Amino acid sequence: MHKVLVVGAGPTGLTAALELARQGLVPEIIEKQATGSGLSRAVGLLPSSMKILEASGVAESIREEAMAYRAAAFYVNDKLTAQVPLQEDDSDSPLLYGLAQDRTEALMKSALERSGVAVQHGVNLVSLDIEDDHAVATLCLGGSRKEVRKYDLLVGADGVHSTVRRSLGMAFEGFDLEEPWSIADVEVEGWDTSLFSLFRLSHGKVVVVAPVESGRVRIISNTTDAIKAVPVPMNITKTINQGVFNISVRQVRQYNHGPVYLAGDAAHCHSPAGGRGMNLGIADAADLAHRIMNDELEGYDAARHSAGRETIALSERARRAMTTRNVFYRMQITTTIGVLSRNRLLRERMISRMLAMS
């Protein structure tokens, strides 16, 4: 049985550890942060992710707590132009759930602990080498305490600024967007938590409002102040967290280097348009765990690089469409959204295409 280290305890790393433990391989999992996530861009959970998380029992826990979006509301400035259902007409199952990442992670950690695996918080990967087809990790266990450990396989799920990737000199090719984006988590009163809302403002600016709990929403905007950018009244009772970030669009050329395999944001990153980031990472991790357990690692790079490339392309198309300043294209998009809200056949085709990406 392989000795495996998972670096990073976000949704990607936790999925990898959960799936390995569920199938009989107990991994180690470390996280440099002393506690879980604070501010995070990840919110939406697609059916593909929920299917992956069924076997561990996490999906059931998520359904009990998450917001089930029944529709996407589209605005031009403060005017509602259309509502597009986010569930098939003959089904009661929503196609998108919204839950704050810290809660998603907490539910995953609880399931992992039931499998006999605890996240080692406050343990930092200092450096990584490959010797004799093994991954040799130098870990900081707190203070000045360091320890060198050898593993058969190592899963790098440590995010955009991955120490795993950098230690091995794996190029992260792509580009950075110039404009800043902002994000805020706030508690609100009187907001419809069944709606995922997109506001298209003037000059290519946008605001997305995604409920993540009863009375709590996440706001994302390509402005420097997401809260101020919301063009309709919002009764905010508490600001939990807010910040400004920049978007990178990047992907590694190869998803593995010897016994080291990358997954999630360590392997790819893109804009939050389309809500695919966390879901793609969960899919990476589940696929990798399956391949580890079935000795099929050779195909991981080709399969997940292709999925990542397609998702990045989809995300960029969605971002450009959302933020275009071209008046003609903006009118065309508004018309298309209106047609989708009324035409069941076209809407189901669009939804099927979106859900096929994983």
Explain this structure to me?
Helices cover 33% and strands 32% of the residues. With 358 residues, the protein is α+β, with helices and mostly antiparallel strands. It has a seven-stranded mixed sheet. The model has no long low-confidence stretch (mean pLDDT 88).
Largest β-sheet summary:
7 strands, mixed
The end-to-end distance, rounded to whole angstroms, is 29 Å
Q: What coarse outline follows from CA principal-axis ratios?
A: globular
Tell me roughly what share of residues is in helical segments: 25-40%
* Secondary structure: number of strands: 22
The radius of gyration computed from the alpha-carbon positions, rounded to a whole number of angstroms, is 21 Å
Order the strands across the largest sheet as they lie in space.
Answer: 6-5-15-16-17-14-18
Q: DSSP helix count?
A: 10
Which regions are unreliable across 5 or more consecutive residues at pLDDT < 50? none
Mean pLDDT: 88
Overall SS class: alpha+beta
What proportion of the residues form beta strands (DSSP E)? 25-35%
Defining traits:
32% strand, six-stranded mixed sheet, alpha+beta, 10 helices, single chain
Helix and strand layout, with pairings?
Blueprint: E1 4-7, H1 11-22, E2 28-31, E3 44-45, H2 47-52, H3 58-65, E4 67-68, E5 71-76, E6 79-85, E7 97-98, H4 101-114, E8 120-121, E9 124-131, E10 134-142, E11 145-151, E12 153-156, H5 163-167, E13 172-176, E14 181-189, E15 195-200, E16 206-213, E17 216-221, H6 226-229, E18 235-245, E19 248-252, E20 256-257, E21 260-262, E22 268-269, H7 277-293, H8 300-323, H9 327-342, H10 344-355
Parallel strand pairs: 1-2, 1-12, 2-8, 5-15, 12-21
Antiparallel strand pairs: 3-7, 4-7, 5-6, 9-10, 10-11, 13-19, 14-17, 14-18, 15-16, 16-17, 19-22, 20-21
Helix pairs in contact: 1-4, 1-7, 7-8
